[in-house]
């Protein structure tokens, strides 16, 4: 009887699965595609296809229209690096949809992220590619992971994004994103900015509609915002023909959201029914730094500031650069420079000096006489000297803004700059070669008389030629490097860090006698400058040979100025010898005090008030890197070893900007470009399935560090003898944060509050989804605010795992909570929370 019942259930499941698949052509396990022989799986009506789509550089795995001539792409796999060679195979396996090297079982990448065994797949007629399990349940579908487009029936859920392409035919991720925020506001952002109004260039101003609002595209072309199944707002009218027509919403490569339609006739063309704007200069970042956008005959055109040139040909988003040399030693700046005007262009204001009640001419002359000033913005009697680079330039005929830009009027070079070796002229090169040949002939005569074979002389001649060519290459490279370094020093005037020779570095460090530490970027030595100031000299290893990249990174580090950022005093660049000179930190790094149980120094202990002040200082330094300095910087390696402490235990963040200076990093990992230290890396840095890599990745690393700082001082008794090497975060969360048990019997009430605050902020910062984490300015507010104002965070999914139990006792304040802190730092109307 039991066997009969089991057979009945099995047959019922089979019938149900067959019914679910009725009318759908299934793709069976081990089915495969290749770029040339069998490139795609088509839907039943051939409207859509899933498979390889040829690009300019190779092939990409895409979903595209199969029945129209354009073969328009609506979804792309692995948009960070979509292009694959022609010798790959796409195979549907039980473990996933994988790309393999042809003729091998080596997996190059995986298309899906399903966690259940796969039984079959299907390309549906609505453009959705679906994976099924054995019960005919959908376990993965492309509709849940849109790239730059939405099809009818597809939705962009709360927290979802559309990411533009890099170019019209380049399927890599571009520089714009459409974000369906959790506060129900639909906003367009510049990809590499922050989640703030400065970097948003269009808001639909739809906040307050609920916490489950999604963007949906209907079959009749209606694009609307829905709270569940209830239409809240229509962005487009809808009511268009359904039969024989198709609609598509796409965030185009130029940053504009558009609705397209066309008939399914093969020879028809796409038509734009609606766009969020007709102003093609509206998207911020379309024209990069030191350039501005102007509408010319309906198209966007980028132009550089006077005296600047495009950084990379054909890539305006990379911005413009200048080789202007400004020598601050020249007291008469008008002798070599003049100011030129740019009218009716607005910029993001990033000033370092401002004065009101100023005339245009005074503003112009004031910038000219200030050797640091390259650009000054003038509007309504106010003159603001700007930090470079300038961002988000946009021409508007109605704008009253005026920019004064310093240019080199006389091709002026200060006579004190000497010592540059000249390139050999063609005549000099020929004379050199002739002299070498004559020497060779003379050697040949001498050695031939001595009975030396011609073969040996040939070898000798080859060595001479190789040596001459190598020396010439070195001279040319050294010449170019020196010019780049001279330009850097002159452009930054007295604000530039001092440039040291390698011999000076050896003298400062007494030939590298006192080693302070060693990390992934190099070895740190103690040194002393001629004026007696102690310094820390970091000798870099495995660095790039590109002097421009090195100089750009040194420039970004040197432009930072904050009490919680380590101060760069100088640098060295001589061929493969590179070093950075920092202020000396006598109390070394924070890990010495966090991991005191591993320290040989019994005095490595800090009070809770000082530990709390260090936590706040690091948060303020990170906030400055993310928002306050003129070059926004994401650190990517926040950890106790990179937090240095001065004589007063004031924390200073170090090693930012070095990720681009160095190729290989000990104690660092590299997984498809991942940066960071194991244990501190945010989940989205490992896998883009968790979200977009941004400043929120630093927030996660800071949160881990904060939890370890707080856990170090809890001194919690554990029931397990295996607990010494573990941070029982799940138990700490349950007992300390939720149940409010006492942390330590000897702690004062003030210390209890400090530790609890650090723990709660740490758990907020380590939320798995980047969107759920607070920004660093919110972290500072929470740390400096009242404990009762901090809502209890959810337990971060990635920090929870089975671990030994422990007990502790601590008084708890149990609160209910609603919206996390991390959700209020989005585009908001004036008058609401920032």
UniProtKB/TrEMBL annotation:
Annotated signal sequence range: 1-17
Residue sites binding ATP per the record: 538
Keyword Iron-sulfur: no
Membrane topology: Single-pass type I membrane protein
GO cellular component, one term: membrane
Species assigned in the record: Salvia divinorum
UniProt domain Bulb-type lectin: residue ranges: 26-144
Protein name, per record: Receptor-like serine/threonine-protein kinase
């Amino acid at each position: 009887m039991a066997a009969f019942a089991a057979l009945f259930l099995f047959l019922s499941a089979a019938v149900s699965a067959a019914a679910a698949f009725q009318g759908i052509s299934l793709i069976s396990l081990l089915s495969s595609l290749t770029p040339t022989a069998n490139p795609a799986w088509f839907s039943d009506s051939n409207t859509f296809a899933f498979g390889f789509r040829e690009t300019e550089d190779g092939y990409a795995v895409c979903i595209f229209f199969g029945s129209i001539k354009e073969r328009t792409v609506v979804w792309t796999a692995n948009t960070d690096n979509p292009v694959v060679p022609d010798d790959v195979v796409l195979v549907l396996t039980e473990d996933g949809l994988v790309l393999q090297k042809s003729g091998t079982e080596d997996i190059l990448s995986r298309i899906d992220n399903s966690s259940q065994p796969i039984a079959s797949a299907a390309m549906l007629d609505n453009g959705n590619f679906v994976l099924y399990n054995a019960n005919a349940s959908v376990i993965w579908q492309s509709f849940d992971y849109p790239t730059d487009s939405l099809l009818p029936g597809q939705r962009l859920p709360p927290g979802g994004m559309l990411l533009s392409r890099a170019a019209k035919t380049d399927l890599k991720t571009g520089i714009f994103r459409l974000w369906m925020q959790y506060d129900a506001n639909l906003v367009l952002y510049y990809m590499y900015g922050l989640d703030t109004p400065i970097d948003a260039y269009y808001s639909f101003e739809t906040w307050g509609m609920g916490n489950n609002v999604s963007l949906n595209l209907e079959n009749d072309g209606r694009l609307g915002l829905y709270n569940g199944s209830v239409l809240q707002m229509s962005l487009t009218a809808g009511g268009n023909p359904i039969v024989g027509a198709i609609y598509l919403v796409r965030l185009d490569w130029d940053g504009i959201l558009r609705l397209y339609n066309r008939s399914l006739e093969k020879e028809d063309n796409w038509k734009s029914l609606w766009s969020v704007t007709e102003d093609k200069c509206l998207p911020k970042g379309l024209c990069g730094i030191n350039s501005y956008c102007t509408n010319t005959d309906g198209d966007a055109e980028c132009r550089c500031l006077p005296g600047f040139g495009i950084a990379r040909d054909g890539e305006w988003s990379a911005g413009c650069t200048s080789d202007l040399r400004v020598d601050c030693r020249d007291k008469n700046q008008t002798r070599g420079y003049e100011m030129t005007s740019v009218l009716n262009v607005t910029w993001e204001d990033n000033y370092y000096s401002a004065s009101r009640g100023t005339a245009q001419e005074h503003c112009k002359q004031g910038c000219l006489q200030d050797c640091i000033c390259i650009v000054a913005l003038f509007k309504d009697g106010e003159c603001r000297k700007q930090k470079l680079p300038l961002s988000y330039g946009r021409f508007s005929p109605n704008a009253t803004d005026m920019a004064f830009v310093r240019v080199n009027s006389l091709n002026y070079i200060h006579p004190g700059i000497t010592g540059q070796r000249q390139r050999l002229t063609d005549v000099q090169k020929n004379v050199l070669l002739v002299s070498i040949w004559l020497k060779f002939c003379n050697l040949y005569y001498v050695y031939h008389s001595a009975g030396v074979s011609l073969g040996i002389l040939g070898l000798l001649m080859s060595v001479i030629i190789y040596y001459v060519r190598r020396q010439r290459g070195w001279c040319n490279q050294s010449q170019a490097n020196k010019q780049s370094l001279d330009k850097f020093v002159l452009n930054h005037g007295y604000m530039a860090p001092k440039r040291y020779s390698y011999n000076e570095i050896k003298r400062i460090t007494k030939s590298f006698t006192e080693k302070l530490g060693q990390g992934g970027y190099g070895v740190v030595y103690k040194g002393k400058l001629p004026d007696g100031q102690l310094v820390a000299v970091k000798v870099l290893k495995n660095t790039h040979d590109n002097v421009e990249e090195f100089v750009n990174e040194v420039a970004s580090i040197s432009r930072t100025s904050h009490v919680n950022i380590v101060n760069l005093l100088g640098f060295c660049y001589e061929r493969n010898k590179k070093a950075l000179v920092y202020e000396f930190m006598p109390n070394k790094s924070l890990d010495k005090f966090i991991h005191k149980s591993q320290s040989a120094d019994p005095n490595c202990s800090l009070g809770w008030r000082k530990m709390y002040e260090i936590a706040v200082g690091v948060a303020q330094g990170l906030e400055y890197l993310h928002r306050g300095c003129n070059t926004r910087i994401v650190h990517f390696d926040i950890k106790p070893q990179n937090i240095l402490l001065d004589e007063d235990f004031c924390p200073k963040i170090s090693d930012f900007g070095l990720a681009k200076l160095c190729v290989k990093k000990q104690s660092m990992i590299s997984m498809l470009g991942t940066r960071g230290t194991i244990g501190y890396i945010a989940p989205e840095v490992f896998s883009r399935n968790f979200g977009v890599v941004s400043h929120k990745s630093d927030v996660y690393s800071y949160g881990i560090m904060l939890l370890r700082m707080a856990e170090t001082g809890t001194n919690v008794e554990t029931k397990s003898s295996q607990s010494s090497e573990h941070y029982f975060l799940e138990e700490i969360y349950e007992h300390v944060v939720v149940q409010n048990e006492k942390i330590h019997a000897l702690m004062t009430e003030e210390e209890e509050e400090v530790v609890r605050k650090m723990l709660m902020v740490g758990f907020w910062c380590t939320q798995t989804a980047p969107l759920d984490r607070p920004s660093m300015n919110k972290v500072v507010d929470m740390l400096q605010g009242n404990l009762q104002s901090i809502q209890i965070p959810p337990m971060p999914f990635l920090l929870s795992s089975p671990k030994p139990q422990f007990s502790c006792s601590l008084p708890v304040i149990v609160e209910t909570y609603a919206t996390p802190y991390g959700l209020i730092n989005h585009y908001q109307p004036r008058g609401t929370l920032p």
